[in-house]
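Q: Focus on the chain.
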Amino acid sequence: MGILGFFQRGGATPNGIGKQVTRAKDPYSQSEYRVDAMKKLLQWNTKESLLGVLDRFSIVVQSPHWDEEEKTWLKEELQKKGDLAKEAIVQFIGTAGAVTHPTQVLSCLCSSQEEFAGLLQRALQARSPEDHRGSQAKRELILALQAVDVDGVVESICVYLQDQNDDVRCAAIDAVRAKGNKKLKQRLVAMLADESSSSRVLRHVASAVSRLNLHIEDAFVLASSLQESYVVQDSKLKKRSS
């Protein structure tokens, strides 16, 4: 599209898009004003305007009722945009702080679960376990991947067993517990000795190991914060009797 064609789209300029995004994200205005702004962004139907309207998912407005209503409506409208929305969502989830609603739309726009899983994996891998930022998005992407019935997704999650954020680590533990193979599940056992982990993470992984009934060498030494509550007995992790 030429420059003239771009500017003839009735306000779909960077400045025009920015103004409508601001209106769409105003948590205190009336719902009809936010919806009107979202309609303009959708009608302009450019990748830039769709990236702008996706930003509505990043905020929670004052009324929980209207927040849910608007987000449900927006998800339905984005599905109608097809490949253009898909392209915008793929870019958006690579950097956004909250991705649950956009990934739900993406799931409907992908041609297969394999394609969907691949796009989620790419978005997750764009966020390093060493990075303190983006923890909410990492956790949401792990949860979305766990729900996809595609072989191999857990391998891409395992690195986040050592994430900087406890919520992310616990989500990764749950994913490995639910879908990991025997080798991956044994990585949970190794975590039981990690003195650098928080008590919360250690309790979470201990619960997973106990539920899975994983084999543990009798000489294995648990992290000190677990020793009051758990013991290795008969090559299994068991809760101490109260």
